From TrEMBL:
CDD domains: AdoMet_MTases. PANTHER family: METHYLTRANSFERASE (PTHR43464), UBIQUINONE BIOSYNTHESIS O-METHYLTRANSFERASE, MITOCHONDRIAL (PTHR43464:SF19). SUPFAM superfamilies: S-adenosyl-L-methionine-dependent methyltransferases (SSF53335). It comes from the Bacteria. InterPro entries: Methyltransf_11, SAM-dependent_MTases_sf. The keyword Metal-binding does not apply. This is SAM-dependent methyltransferase. The lineage of its organism: Bacteria, Pseudomonadati, Pseudomonadota, Alphaproteobacteria, Rhodospirillales. Pfam families: Methyltransf_11. It comes from Inquilinus limosus. One of its GO terms (biological process) is methylation. Residues 50-144 form the Methyltransferase type domain. Keywords: Methyltransferase, S-adenosyl-L-methionine, Transferase. GO terms for molecular function: S-adenosylmethionine-dependent methyltransferase activity.
Length: 248
């Protein structure tokens, strides 16, 4: 038995904080995660795309602009989808409110499935991956990012700093103990699920997918020149990205 899916994004305080972060694009997502995810995508022309945890629909609109044939964006949050629909004017993009854990998908209906920083909220990762694998056409690709297991191991992990406030080290403990972590992000009570790198990779393999790439993105020289603060995140990776293919 798994936990009931949480819909923290419809909490007003959480949503306000998240929306402010995304609209300023000042976070690590824009600097590290999104460029790394884009590098794992196949050529998009003509593809049927599934976007799991679509949020405001930014990815859906971007891949349509790059030639994707259609996009189904799925999110558990009504607030997210209201905003996504308001920002989207494209009949080839469809939004559906559903939890990743319970989403029903047609077999072989998509050529590409993508999930950006959503699967660490999902209790039944293995079940979600099996459903995505079944929904991919032969030769299709699944690309996703999650918070790195070094960050989720302790739940609300944070840098240990010296008396002057300078980061000294990032603590890692309970790494091999996969499962629920109750954390704070904008509000208390945000539920995430810690998995090891092996857990993420083996879930793909056990679903019949073939691992194509594993990424732990760092800032490139140009990004470091623009934002020297990103050098700190070379000391521990904030994100894990995986790409896996369904055999043709």
């Amino acid at each position: 038995m798994t936990d009931t899916p949480q819909n923290i994004y419809d909490d007003p305080a959480f949503f306000a904080g998240y929306a402010a972060l995304r609209d300023t694009e000042g976070g690590l997502n824009a600097a590290l995660e999104q460029p790394a995810l884009a590098r794992l995508l196949p050529p998009l022309a003509g593809l049927r795309v599934l976007d799991l945890g679509c949020g405001f629909g930014d990815f859906a609109r971007a891949v349509r602009a790059q030639g994707a044939a259609s996009v189904l964006g799925v999110d558990v949050s009504a607030k997210m989808l209201t905003e996504a629909r308001a920002r989207t004017d494209d009949p080839a993009i469809r939004y559906e409110q559903a939890a990743i854990e319970t989403l029903a998908l047609e077999e072989r209906a998509f050529d590409l499935a993508v999930s950006s920083l959503a699967l660490h909220y999902v209790a039944d990762y293995a079940g979600a991956v099996r459903r995505v694998a079944a929904a991919l056409a032969p030769g299709g690709r699944f690309v996703f990012s999650v918070e790195h297991p070094m960050c989720t191991a302790l739940g609300g992990g944070q840098w240990h700093c010296d008396a002057a406030g300078e980061p000294q080290h990032w603590p890692v403990d309970r790494y091999g103990e996969e499962g629920r972590r109750d954390t704070r992000w904008f509000v208390d009570g945000v539920v995430k699920y810690h998995r090891t790198v092996a857990g993420y990779v083996n879930g793909l393999v056990e679903a019949g997918l073939v691992l194509a790439r594993l990424g732990e993105p760092e800032a490139d020289p140009a990004a470091l020149a623009a934002r020297p603060d990103l050098a700190l995140h070379r000391r521990r990776p904030p994100f894990l990205l995986l790409a896996a293919d369904k055999p043709a």
